[in-house]
């Protein structure tokens, strides 16, 4: 009987047998790695309407986070400050104005235009997040937002994925600090942070108990 | 040799498994010829009807994805509607294939060779139909991958304590093993089809599937070994798959569902419905393709006997459910069963009892077992009854523990179109199978011919007798 296929085709079934599991594992890996927020979202750094520098305001000038984001201790949202907050200083100082960089803020304050900030840290609508409970538990700003005080333009530092939330909810202690240090951007670089034990903190009246069940966040 | 009083009687006389004393070539011709004919008007009619029903299924699924599960009749409390009924129905039908191919193989039931290819194909197509329903019922179909344990950024895993997950594994394992088993058995027959092919494309396609089979002794030894191994792997699956399917119900705490009898009762029911479906398909097919000498009355009668046995087991289980409900003294359990027989779904219960308990009892009579028309009609009754069994069980939901939430379940147009469409998918696949793949295992049937027995020259006319004779000879002379 004449041969229908050349000899090398004998290897095809073997190649399929070996290749299919490898390809399947490859697909799972690609989804797991490249589709995760760690890959897609970390480093997101949109251009803002005003070249506002957190590095200057929070870092060099040392403004407390809560001066602008004043609702963070009492509300779910850490507010974007009203323009009046900017003008508290910028109506009296002429800083930064030589290049006209504050001009859009002033225009907006006078009602000539609006400022449309671009949101950097986005959670999906089906995930409930409350800033005040995290601040009250002693989770610092920098734990989720990174070293904002070193960012000229704010970028997303952490993935904000579900597994990233759960990592902390399942074992919160390493990320806790004294509650008066919440806005201290450099807390974890201080020697005191090495010795801090939340269980022995007298200002804490009860242990933190972050929810791990579905409806804790998906209400 | 015993005197032949009844040609089909296993004790007093045995007819050959294949009638008409055909040669090897006759068998090949009988099976392969219909596949090679180019114009088959009857086939086209059947195929096109099935394909249009398949279109109905695709439209129903498309609309379901667009609109959501609200298009079905599911309500509160009946959150599980026809989707699970159809799923269990199709998985159950898929059971006969493995039983015939694996269990009967291990028990050396040589009559299986005429119907095993057929039954295995039916198994695979039925499991495909079944797998559709868990896939489409999830509502948010784009997250259907949650059913599988795939590592992801959400740290989300399926609930390993849930029987619904066990089901995913049980059914997909079953599908894989059944497909492998079917394919391994097909290799020699694909080679036959390849060697008979006239057109070049046809030859090439069959050659790819034949994996270079040349029928050498070494290949046959490997083949037999692989086949026996796969049969051994598949045998526990016959019991496990439908046991796990029954856990979907039995592991929950609902009265009427939470019973230990469910796994064996479901397995018996599955084999019952599977054999009925084999009969429903085989009886017309053997007539249309003129294979009545290969799939003859003995095969049909044997299947009828299995239906009688498993049907009686199912009837026993129905009775035992009532007995246990009474004996347990649990008023909720008792209510559920009284409500099942006399409540708003009582009509479905009595359809089920009529079709599943009474129908198989006709097979006590030899005349009826050997009457092809009766077999065909009764097998359809069994199919209907087994669908209703799953419906009745699922409808326990309609009267739950809170009477204020009781509600009646009414199927919508889309419920019905999805069920009808799933038959379209099944028959589309089946018609493709009839047209492209030998519907009887050619090589295995040759093995039960008298000529295949080295002692056939002793003058015995029957393959089975020759087999028995040779066994006696071995026992006598060692």
Instruction: Give the helix proportion of chain A (percent range).
Output: 25-40%
Rg from alpha-carbon coordinates of chain B: 24 Å
Radius of gyration of chain A: 25 Å
Q: Give the SSE string of chain B.
A: HHHHHHHHHHHHHHHHH
Number of helices of chain A: 11
Separate helix tally of chain B: 17
Oligomer: heterodimer
- Give the distance, in angstroms, between the N- and C-terminal Cα atoms of chain A: 71 Å
Largest sheet of chain B: none
Biggest pleated sheet of chain A: none
Shape of chain A: extended
Which blocks of ≥5 consecutive residues of chain A have pLDDT under 50?
A: none
Give a verbal description of the structure.
- The complex is a heterodimer of chains A (about 220) and B (about 475).
- Chain A folds into three domains: about 15-40; about 55-80 and about 120-215, no CATH class; about 85-115, no CATH class.
- Helices cover about 40% and strands about 0% of the residues of chain A.
- Chain A has helices at about 10-35, 35-40, 55-60, 65-70, 85-90, 105-110, 130-135, 140-145, 160-170, 190-195, 215.
- Chain A is extended.
- Chain B is mostly helical and about 475 residues long.
- Chain B has a domain at about 25-140 and about 145-255 and about 265-300 and about 435-445.
- Chain B contains 17 helices and no strands.
- In chain B, α3 (about 80-95) packs antiparallel against α5, α3 (about 80-95) crosses α9 (about 260-290) and α9 packs antiparallel against α10.
- The radius of gyration of chain B is 24 Å and the shape is globular.
- At the A-B interface, α1 and α9 of A face α7 of B.
């Amino acid at each position: 009987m004449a041969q229908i296929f050349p000899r090398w085709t004998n290897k095809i079934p073997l190649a399929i047998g070996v290749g299919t599991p490898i390809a399947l594992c490859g697909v799972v890996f690609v989804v797991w790695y490249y589709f995760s927020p760690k890959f897609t979202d970390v480093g997101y750094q949109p251009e803002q309407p005003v070249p506002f520098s957190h590095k200057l305001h929070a870092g060099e000038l040392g403004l407390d986070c809560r001066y602008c984001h004043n609702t963070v201790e009492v509300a779910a949202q850490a507010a974007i400050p009203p323009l009046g907050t900017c003008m508290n200083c910028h109506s009296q100082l002429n800083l930064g104005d030589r290049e006209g960089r504050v001009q859009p803020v002033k225009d907006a304050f006078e009602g000539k235009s609006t400022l449309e900030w671009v949101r950097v840290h986005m959670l999906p609508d089906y995930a409930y997040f409350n800033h005040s409970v995290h601040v009250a538990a002693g989770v610092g700003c920098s734990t989720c937002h990174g070293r904002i005080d070193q960012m000229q333009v704010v970028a997303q530092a952490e993935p904000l994925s579900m597994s990233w939330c759960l990592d902390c909810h399942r074992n919160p202690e390493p990320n806790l600090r004294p509650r008066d240090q919440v806005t201290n951007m450099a807390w974890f670089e201080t020697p005191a942070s090495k010795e801090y034990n939340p269980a022995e903190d007298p200002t804490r009246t009860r242990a933190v108990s972050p929810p791990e069940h579905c409806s804790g966040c998906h209400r | 040799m015993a005197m032949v009083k009844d040609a089909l009687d296993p004790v007093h006389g045995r007819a050959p498994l294949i009638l008409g004393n055909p040669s090897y070539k006759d068998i090949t011709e009988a099976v392969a010829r219909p596949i090679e004919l180019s114009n088959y008007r009857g086939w086209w009619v059947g195929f096109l009807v099935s394909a249009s029903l398949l279109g109905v299924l695709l439209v129903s699924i498309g609309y379901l994805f667009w609109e959501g599960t609200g298009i079905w009749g599911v309500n509160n409390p009946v959150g599980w509607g026809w989707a699970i009924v159809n799923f269990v129905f199709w998985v159950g039908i898929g059971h006969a294939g493995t039983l015939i191919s694996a269990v009967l193989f291990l028990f050396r039931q040589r009559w299986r060779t005429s119907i095993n290819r057929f039954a295995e194909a039916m198994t695979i197509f039925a499991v495909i139909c079944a797998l559709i329903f868990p896939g489409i019922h999830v509502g948010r179909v784009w997250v259907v991958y949650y059913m599988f344990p795939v590592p992801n950024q959400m740290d989300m895993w399926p609930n390993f304590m849930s029987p619904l997950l066990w089901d995913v594994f049980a059914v997909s394992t079953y599908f894989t093993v059944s497909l492998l088993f079917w394919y391994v058995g097909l290799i020699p027959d694909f080679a036959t089809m390849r060697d008979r092919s006239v057109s070049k494309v046809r030859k090439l396609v069959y050659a790819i599937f034949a994996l270079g089979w040349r029928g050498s002794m070494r290949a046959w030894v490997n083949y037999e070994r692989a086949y026996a191994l796969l049969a051994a792997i598949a045998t526990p699956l016959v019991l496990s798959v439908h046991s796990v399917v029954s856990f979907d119900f039995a592991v929950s705490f609902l009265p009427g569902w939470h019973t230990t009898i469910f796994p064996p009762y479901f397995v018996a029911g599955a084999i019952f419905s599977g054999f009925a479906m084999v009969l429903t398909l085989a009886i017309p097919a053997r007539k249309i393709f003129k294979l009545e000498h290969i799939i003859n009355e003995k095969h049909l009668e044997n299947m009828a006997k299995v239906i009688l046995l498993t049907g009686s087991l199912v009837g026993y289980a129905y009775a035992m459910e009532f007995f246990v409900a009474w004996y347990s003294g649990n008023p909720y359990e008792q209510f559920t069963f009284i409500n099942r027989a006399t409540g708003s779904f009582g009509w479905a219960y009595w359809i089920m009892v009529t079709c599943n308990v009474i129908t198989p009892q006709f097979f006590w009579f030899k005349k009826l077992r050997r009457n092809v028309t009766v077999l065909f009609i009764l097998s359809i009754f069994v199919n209907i009854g087994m669908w209703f069994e799953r419906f009745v069980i699922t409808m326990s939901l309609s009267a739950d523990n809170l009477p204020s939430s009781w509600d009646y379940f009414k199927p919508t147009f889309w419920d019905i179109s999805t069920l009808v469409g799933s038959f379209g998918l099944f028959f589309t696949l089946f018609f493709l199978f009839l047209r492209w793949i030998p519907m009887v295992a050619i090589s295995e049937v040759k093995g039960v011919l008298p000529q295949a027995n080295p002692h056939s020259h002793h003058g015995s006319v029957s393959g089975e007798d020759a087999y028995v004779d040779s066994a006696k000879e071995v026992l006598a002379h060692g």
